[in-house]
């Protein structure tokens, strides 16, 4: 799976401060740390960026590119900032993101075309977040049609089915999984991508990684191509590289509802199995899912 | 929809020839499942498969239209047993029962009253939707007089009720352009009713003493080409009603049992000892699946809770309920009144405006459009930030509504206070209580100009 | 096509919880089917319908809400007695409003004395509610638990921030508790898991928090329905506790309930009926007429 590191994010106080003060040092630490951990792309999340959008993005893109050769994923709802960043990307960038919302199709998609950047396209549309797999499919087909007409090929489109927190609506996770399996048929050539960490939003901080990693293994099996992830999670990278085959295998067995003697497993293995069961919708999620 | 896109896919040619305008057969299947294209758009589906698909794709519960034009009432095509599984789609009709045995002045008064049973609530009109006109006199002329009066003086759709099939259909013929629901169509009169239903193009109110009887009647109607039915399983107490409605809905949705795949009608007016019980039975039956409730209630105190109840249960749990963005004036504020701000999440609005009313201190309530999400989530997503609120202030000229410069913000939004102090430097930002129920206390103790 | 009634059976039961002690004790829960579905399962206990009593003179109540008790509203024991003797309440719910730290802030011992007096003079199942303030409630409810040791009261609300202390006292003195988690099945489960580590599940009633008709009733309705589904259909042991709905306080603060007596009573009764249809096992009413109406309609 292609991993996009998410830690350059204005939601972090340190990063937000560094950007405001044009202080490159914290940026360097964040870039090099994520790159060193094996990220394939770096996400630059500057949020809505209402003040000096162009200038802010320009500074950030230039600064980041001083420290890394990795391709960038520009994450902002501000099209002025987006365009300013795209102009400076040395490698083919990723626009994060457009959706089926009319305004987004009209303003963001053309930027992807103009700068030959790839495009994250979410299934959200004017009616909001589709509630099941079929609705997601219906929505994405329409926005794909629009994008194709603009001259953006499927190969440049990364479909984001929108991953909801497990603590908000567990059923959405199941329809997420159903949907990514449809993507090769729906949009041959397109990739799938998601904001993986959103899955564990509202879960206890120390357990978020476990949820994210387990889910990564699950959706990799269903053909997920890419994910925006916590750039410093080493175990996640090892799982992704195939360096922990026993855990991957265990998760697969739990997905297949194979009978297994949980008590015979190590503590860590038990955690992965219980987490798989929750994510597969077998048991109702609660923040203390490991304790039952 | 009854069929999922992936299941439809299995029945398509899988050649991806693109003639339907879709990139792949799969795309076509998905669009078909969500209603974006028509089956006919693919020229290569085998006719037999097509018939099968058409059958399987038909919704498991029929959509039925009663009435015509803008007051037409549409019920049915429900997809779930529990609203949290998706949503309930079509609000049940509330029908007011009027008998032709009632005196003329009584009828006139009732008709006038029913017309007034309309209320506004967060931009929606809540109203009674149908008149159930009942031929209790046994006399055709008397019934026709009632139908004629209702036809001429109101624009409600009708349910026509008569045990005498001839009277029933001659009355129906008088108002066929309004597409009334004729009731009852039973085992006894179904053969006689079929030609008339077809001739007039009307939906049938099917009544049986048991579900088996209902099934016999709907099956005959279906074979004869009468597609739209509403089922009354004959239950005449609330708990039996809930049982029957539940079984009917389950048979239709979970078993795909077509002879019960119709919306239902119930008669709380015949189930109860007094008005309170009737109102409660009506709301209970609406909760548990009724497509129509027939009631004899016409008083505002009894109908209004019923209307709000229906509005609540049929609201879509997948979308937050919202109210319009603007500066609301709660109990006629003046230039010295407090100003509060909150999101346009309907619940926040109701609770805060209710609390202000309870406090008995008139106030301006600024409601900022956040797409219906609550204070904290809206702050995080940038829709309820200092900057966004400063823009709101400009847009609605809030400064000039009052003489003071004090703004009360929701107590949970602590960070917002700092932002606002930066964005609206001339304003004093007061952190309100975290719980709306503490607003009355907050206003009466803290509010001074 | 032949019709066969599509009945659904569930191999599990909602837990049965006993309220009170002695011959007037009442059981709630115990069903293995959805509410009122006696045609396909068993519902051994009718829902508990409780009448609300305040431990201090109510402020700002609509006249018609206060009318039934206006002669006794300054004396909680007499109020309770009238509720039982005149209005036929079989369960009472005493709200210790006097202990509100934002209000009178009465001492835990004072409140416990009132509870004890009611228990001694009436001996019917009693729910005792604090004000939802974590710190104060834990002091108050621990004191109540102690003062009424062995009486099997139902104490609440027990929240994430104070469940340990209150549940411990309840356990020690033989009471049941109301575990409250606001409008969220996941949080309900989380609190139950935490409680069940040391507290018997058959002494827990869950409260997803209630809202009134027109003010979010549908949220409570759906959360109760889904809790019941998790318990019965998904057989989740942590979701098989009976459900509690405290509706009087929510309904009577709405402006609609304050508009007229008829509308107020219906506002409360409609909200109560809706939650019973969702699966609530214990509902607290403020107006005796609303309670009477519901009781007469659901007896089976
Ligand atoms: S026309 Fe028919 S066969 Fe051709 S792509 Fe469309 S669905 Fe497939």
Short description:
The complex is a heterotrimer of chains A (292), B (449) and C (300). Chain A is α/β, with parallel strands linked by helices. Chain A has twelve helices and eight strands.
What fold name goes in the CATH topology slot of the largest domain in chain B? TIM Barrel
Broad CATH class of chain A: Alpha Beta
Heterogens: iron/sulfur cluster
* CATH A-level architecture of the largest domain in chain B: Alpha-Beta Barrel
According to CATH, the homologous superfamily of chain A is Dihydropteroate synthase-like
Runs of chain B with pLDDT <50, length 5+? none
**CATH topology annotation of chain A:** TIM Barrel
Count of strand segments of chain A: 8
Question: How would you characterize this protein structure?
Answer:
The complex is a heterotrimer of chains A (about 290), B (about 450) and C (about 300). By secondary structure, chain A is α/β, with parallel strands linked by helices. Chain A is built from 12 helices and 8 strands. In chain A, helix 4 (about 80-90) links the parallel strand 3 (about 70-75) and strand 4. In chain A, helix 9 crosses helix 11 (about 245-255), helix 9 crosses helix 12 (about 265-280) and helix 11 (about 245-255) packs across helix 12. Chain B contains 16 helices and 17 strands. By secondary structure, chain B is an alpha/beta fold. In chain B, strands 10-9-8-7-6-3-12-11 form an 8-stranded parallel sheet. The model of chain B has no long low-confidence stretch (mean pLDDT about 90). Helix content of chain B is about 40%, strand content about 15%. Chain B has helices at about 5-10, 25-35, 45-55, 105-115, 140-155, 165-175, 190-200, 210-225, 240-255, 275-285, 300-315, 345-360, 375-380, 385-395, 415-425, 440-445; strands at about 65, 75, 95-100, 120, 125, 130-135, 160, 180-185, 205, 230, 265, 290-295, 325-330, 340-345, 365-370, 405-410, 430. Chain C is of the alpha/beta class and about 300 residues long. Chains in contact: A-B, A-C, B-C. The interface between B and C is large, with 54 and 46 residues. Bound molecules: iron/sulfur cluster. Iron/sulfur cluster binds near residues 13, 17, 20 and 25 of chain B.
């Amino acid at each position: 799976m292609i991993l996009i590191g998410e830690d350059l994010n204005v939601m972090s106080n340190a990063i937000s401060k560094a950007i405001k003060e044009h202080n490159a040092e914290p940026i360097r630490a964040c870039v090099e740390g994520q790159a060193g951990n094996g990220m394939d792309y770096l996400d630059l999340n500057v949020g809505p960026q209402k003040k000096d959008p162009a200038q802010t993005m320009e500074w950030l893109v230039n600064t980041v590119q001083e420290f890394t050769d990795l391709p960038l994923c520009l994450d902002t709802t501000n099209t002025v900032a987006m365009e300013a960043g795209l102009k400076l990307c040395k490698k083919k960038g990723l626009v994060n993101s457009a959706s089926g919302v009319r305004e987004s199709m009209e303003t963001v998609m053309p930027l992807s075309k103009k700068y030959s950047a790839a495009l994250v396209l979410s299934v959200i549309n004017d009616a909001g977040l589709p509630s099941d797999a079929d609705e997601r499919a219906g929505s994405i087909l329409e926005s794909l049609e629009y994008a194709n007409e603009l001259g953006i090929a499927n190969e440049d489109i990364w479909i984001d089915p929108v991953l909801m927190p497990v603590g908000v609506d567990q059923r959405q996770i199941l329809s997420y999984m159903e949907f990514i399996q449809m993507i090769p048929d729906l949009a041959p050539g397109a990739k799938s991508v998601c904001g993986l960490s959103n899955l564990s939003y509202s879960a206890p901080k120390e357990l978020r990684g476990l949820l994210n990693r387990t889910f990564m293994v699950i959706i990799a099996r269903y053909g997920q191509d890419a994910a925006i992830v916590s750039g410093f999670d080493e175990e996640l990278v090892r799982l992704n590289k195939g360096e922990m085959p026993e855990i991957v295998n265990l998760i697969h067995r739990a997905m297949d509802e194979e009978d297994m003697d949980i008590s015979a497993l190590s503590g860590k293995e038990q955690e992965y199995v219980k987490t798989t069961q929750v994510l597969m919708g077998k048991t109702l999620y609660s923040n203390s899912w490991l304790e039952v | 929809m009854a069929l999922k896109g992936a299941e439809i896919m299995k029945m398509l040619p899988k050649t991806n020839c693109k003639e339907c305008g879709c990139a792949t057969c799969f795309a076509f299947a998905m669009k078909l499942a969500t209603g974006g294209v028509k089956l006919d758009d693919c020229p290569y589906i085998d006719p037999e498969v097509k018939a099968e698909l058409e059958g399987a794709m038909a919704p498991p519960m029929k959509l039925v239209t009663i009435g015509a034009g803008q007051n037409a009432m549409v019920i049915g095509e429900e997809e779930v047993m529990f609203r949290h599984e998706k949503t309930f789609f079509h609000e049940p009709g509330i029908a007011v029962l009027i008998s032709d045995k009632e005196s003329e002045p009584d009828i006139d008064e009732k008709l006038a009253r029913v017309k007034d049973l309309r209320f506004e609530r967060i931009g929606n009109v809540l109203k009674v939707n149908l008149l159930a006109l009942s031929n209790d006199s046994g006399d055709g002329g008397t019934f026709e007089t009632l139908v004629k009066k209702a036809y001429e003086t109101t624009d409600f759709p009708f349910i026509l009720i008569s045990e005498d099939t001839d009277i029933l259909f001659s009355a129906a013929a008088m108002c066929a352009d309004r597409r009334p629901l004729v009731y009852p169509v039973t085992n006894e009169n179904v053969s006689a009713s079929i030609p008339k239903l077809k001739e007039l193009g009307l939906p049938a109110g099917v009544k049986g003493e048991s579900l088996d009887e209902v099934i016999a009647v709907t099956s005959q109607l279906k074979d004869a080409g009468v597609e739209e039915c509403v089922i009354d399983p004959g239950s005449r107490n609330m708990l039996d009603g809930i049982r029957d409605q539940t079984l009917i809905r389950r048979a239709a949705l979970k078993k795909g049992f077509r002879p019960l795949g119709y919306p239902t009608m119930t008669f709380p007016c015949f189930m109860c000892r007094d008005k309170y019980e009737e109102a409660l039975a009506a709301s209970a039956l609406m909760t548990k699946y009724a497509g129509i409730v027939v009631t004899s209630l016409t008083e505002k105190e009894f109908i209004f809770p019923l209307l709000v109840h229906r509005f609540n249960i049929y609201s879509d749990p997948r979308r937050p309920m919202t109210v319009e963005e603007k500066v609301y004036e709660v109990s006629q504020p003046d230039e010295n009144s407090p100003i509060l701000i909150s999101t346009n999440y309907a619940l926040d609005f109701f609770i805060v405006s209710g609390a202000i009313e309870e406090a008995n201190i008139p106030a301006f309530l600024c409601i900022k459009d956040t797409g219906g999400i609550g204070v904290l989530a809206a702050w995080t997503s940038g829709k309820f930030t200092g900057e966004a609120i400063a823009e709101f202030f400009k847009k609605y000229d809030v400064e000039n509504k009052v003489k003071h410069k004090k703004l009360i913000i929701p107590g949970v939004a602590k960070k917002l206070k700092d932002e606002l102090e930066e964005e609206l430097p001339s304003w004093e930002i007061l952190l309100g209580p975290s719980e709306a129920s503490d607003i009355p206390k907050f206003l009466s103790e803290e509010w001074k100009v | 096509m032949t019709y066969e009634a599509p009945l659904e059976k569930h191999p599990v039961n909602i837990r049965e919880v006993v309220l009170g002690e002695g011959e007037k004790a009442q059981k709630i829960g115990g069903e293995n089917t959805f509410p009122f579905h006696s045609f396909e399962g068993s519902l051994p206990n009718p829902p508990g319908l409780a009448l609300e009593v305040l431990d201090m003179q109510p402020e700002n109540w609509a006249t018609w809400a206060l009318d039934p008790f206006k002669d006794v509203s300054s004396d909680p024991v007499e109020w309770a007695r009238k509720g039982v003797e005149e209005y036929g309440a079989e369960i009472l719910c005493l709200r210790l409003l006097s202990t509100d730290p934002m209000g009178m802030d009465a001492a835990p011992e004072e409140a416990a004395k009132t509870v004890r007096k009611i228990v001694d003079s009436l001996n019917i199942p009693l729910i005792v509610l604090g004000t939802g303030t974590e710190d104060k409630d834990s002091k108050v409810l621990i004191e109540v638990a102690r003062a009424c040791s062995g009486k099997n009261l139902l104490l609440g609300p027990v929240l994430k921030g104070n469940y340990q202390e209150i549940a411990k006292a309840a356990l020690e003195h033989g009471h049941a508790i109301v575990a409250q988690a606001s409008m969220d099945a996941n949080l309900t489960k989380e609190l139950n898991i935490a409680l069940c580590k040391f507290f018997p599940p058959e002494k827990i009633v869950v409260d997803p928090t209630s809202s009134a008709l027109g003010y979010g009733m549908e949220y409570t309705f759906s959360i109760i329905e889904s809790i019941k589904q998790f318990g019965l259909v998904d057989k989740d042991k942590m979701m098989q506790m009976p459900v509690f709905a405290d509706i009087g306080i929510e309904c009577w603060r709405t402006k609609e309930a304050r508009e007229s007596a008829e509308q107020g009573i219906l506002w409360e009764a409609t909200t109560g009926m809706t939650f019973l249809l969702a699966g609530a096992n214990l509902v607290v009413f403020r107006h005796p007429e609303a309670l009477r109406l519901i009781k007469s309609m659901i007896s089976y």
